[in-house]
Write a structure and sequence with these properties.
This protein is of the alpha/beta class. Helices cover 38% and strands 18% of the residues.
Length: 411
Amino acid sequence: MPDAPHPHAVSPTPMRILIGADTFAPDVNGAAKFAERLAAGLVERGHEVHVVGPRPEDGPNVTRVEQHEGQSMTVHRLRSWRWKPHPWLRYALPWRIEQNAARILDEVKPDVVHFQSHIVVGRGLARQAAARGIRIIGTNHFMPDNAMQFTPFFGSLKDSAIRGMWKAAGRTFGLAESVTTPTRKAADYLEEYAGLEGVHAISCGLHIDHYTPDFAPRTENVALFLGRVEAEKHIDELLRAVAMLDASLDVKVEIIGDGEQRASLERLAVELGVADRVHFAGYAPEEYLKQQLTRASVFVMPSRAELQSIATMEAMASGLPVVGANAMALPHLIHDGENGFLYEPGDIRGFADRLQRIFTMPHDDLLELKRESLRIVSGHDITRTLETFEALYRGEEVDDPIVDGVGSATP
């Protein structure tokens, strides 16, 4: 097996790459973070990268050089409106997207277009790139169930809306030469519901060496959640589980992130009698986030709809055991009994029992979980992700990197 190249290696064939995203920094979510890291990693490897995404503030279309993850890239910001039911999400204007996509493609003349969702920006870029014979790669981070809480649909209307969303996804992703999503479970899901074939499972990846594990005996019990504070994450289950634990454990909860559920969760913490042990950090700078990842005893992810969970990978790169819902793609990262524990969604007692096992575990047993987290996440280094996408951009056949454990595949 050849040694992995240095993460700063320059690609032998620099390309002009255009990335289309419906959500991009400064948005805080997994899809935006992936697009940002992908773009920065490609710049670092010598490619010319352009990003198309919604403007995060009011104003006309603007093209500007922006710094992301320490790298400079050209970002084409499109006039956007905020989606009113959502606390922060903004979308580029759908009725202008094909005109804007055509203009940008004709100006940039990219070698490849890589869109990150089919909703607005991806749809416009895919259609216009197809008309110009430009290679198209599509990546899906979207789960219709996550979007439903911000729509008026319910009951049979909700089911019809979800079917319509998957049908629309199939049309746009059908224009792509290759389609990817972060895990095999998510790829199978996309093939089944969007009617696609041959979807690649390619990890979002992360810079594993940017995180710091702590192997010293713990001096406090801290459960950490990192992510959007929204209903789809089921953070209430964490608070209810902690309230069930023996008070002598003095478990503290750190919640990093923000969203429309924060106020209701703060009230719930008061009702459960744990408010003095729960800290809502809101959106926090990277330095604070990494400090808390090193400090924590366990990372928790109660969400049922994770296509991969970059936050969970960040926790594993920090050497944390993980307790998460046995749902969607989390079992790809959480190997039950090896680097943490899975619980059945909604089983609060089961959640609490698994947390208690970690908080009362002998130090040597805890070290085994921590080391296994590091072993599993080592297969998700971003260098492998970047190499695989570069191969797809060149039109090469690829073998999917192993994304639910340690392994290696070369493009």
